[in-house]
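During the reporting period the student researcher (J.K.) took over the structure-prediction task from the postdoctoral fellow and processed the backlog of single-chain submissions. One of the processed entries is reproduced below for the supervisory committee.
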Amino acid sequence: MRRILLPILIISLSSIGWTGQLKEPVSIEGYFSANEMVANNFFAAEKSVGGSEEIPLTGDIYEFETKSTKRAFLYSMLIPGTGEFYAGSRIKPAVFLGIEALLWTGYFVYHNKGDDKKKEYKAYADDHYSPYDYMSWWNSLNPAKQDSFSHRLPWDDYNNSPIRNHEYYENIGKYNQFQYGWDDINTYPDEGGILSPHRDYYLTLRKKSNDYYQNASTAIMLSLGNRIISAFDAALTAKNYNKGQKRYVIKLKARDFGNGQVPILTCTYRF
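J.K. obtained the following structure tokens:
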């Protein structure tokens, strides 16, 4: 870091501002003596207020403001593109924010489609699957045979009615033991799993619903990836912004010099 100190001569300015209060000097020595007295009085007042040997007159004239890489990173993690905008970029924010908008639009579209298909396959199962027919077959088995099956149909024994939860709608299509409740099976089929056309169609509806939900989840994961990429890019953009600017500070100060004070122009350049 280098500092360049430039003394500023303000004798002529002081003389103009105070000519109304000074008598016309009779000699060159008297003229400069009067101006020196005015300058000393001014800086003495400044010193008495600040109590310091070096008193700022006007503060910073110019100072380069760096961009925080941490702040840029955080901004883009919250909203992709905002960190790049903070770091001075105008094209990248539109790209990352546009990608984020598309991904969230895709999430809501696919999630809603998944909900619609879920309602459809539940309604189809309620129309074509009889849990009571299944329980009739189940109760015809001896206890040892029942124990050989790993799954049970969710059932409310107190009210003697099925519990139509997620497990219920999954089991009646996924496992062969529950095929006895479909209305297009008139006789008990082999345990190997003779699929009914209604069960086949039901599984197709469930697969479409699950695929839509999977697409929605993928959109969320891509959105997270977009945020991470944008965050690191924002930090890099802020770093490059700081490197690409001249990092210097110009200040005007008052400093003791001999019996008085003189204004000093300080220029600081950071390499």
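The committee noted the following: The chain has two domains: 2-64+246-269, 69-243.
J.K. will present the remaining backlog at the next meeting.
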